[in-house]
Automatic annotation (TrEMBL):
Name of the molecule in the record: Sulfur oxidation c-type cytochrome SoxX
Presence of the UniProt keyword Metal-binding in the record: yes
Residue intervals passing through the bilayer: none
Organism annotation: Telmatospirillum siberiense
InterPro entries, alphabetized: Cyt_c-like_dom, Cyt_c-like_dom_sf, Thiosulf_SoxX
Domain Cytochrome c: 33-137
Single GO molecular function: metal ion binding
């Protein structure tokens, strides 16, 4: 129920995807993402929140995380499909991970009210982040 004077926006449905082994081989949007937009998402402490746990090549960002693998070299360690699955639903690869599922809406616990019923990132944003991480080589 929307309050008077507000419009309730319907969330777009999640794009279907197929998990093959330890990856989602096909882009969620059917096209590659924008690496520059992906870098902005990863470095943004309000949007991607990646730097709370990860560190990476972001000299402008102080206080990067050390709870998770460094993002430097991610494009050498994992394929785009493997990166995609880790962002979409890291628990499929590592059941005990603390990394949030960025593109899942069901079966989650401790979800902030703003994210109930919607993913943290859109399909396009996932593809942008994948495109950026794939460029990270040592």
């Amino acid at each position: 129920m929307a309050l008077a004077g507000t419009v309730a926006l319907a969330e777009p449905p999640l794009q279907p995807y197929a998990v093959v082994g330890d990856s989602i081989p096909r882009p969620l949007t059917g096209q590659p993402g924008d690496p520059d937009a992906g870098r902005r998402i990863v470095a943004d402490r309000q949007e991607g929140l990646c730097l709370l746990c990860h560190s990476g090549p972001f000299p402008e960002q102080p206080l990067q995380g050390d709870l998770a693998p460094a993002l430097d070299g991610a494009g050498e360690r994992w394929s785009s499909g493997q990166l995609r699955l880790r962002i979409v639903d890291a628990r499929r690869v590592s059941p005990g991970t603390i990394m949030p599922s960025y593109y899942r809406t069901q079966g989650l616990v401790q979800v902030a009210p703003a994210f109930v019923g919607r993913p943290i990132l859109t399909a396009e944003q996932i593809e942008d982040v994948v495109a950026y991480l794939a460029t990270l080589r040592r």
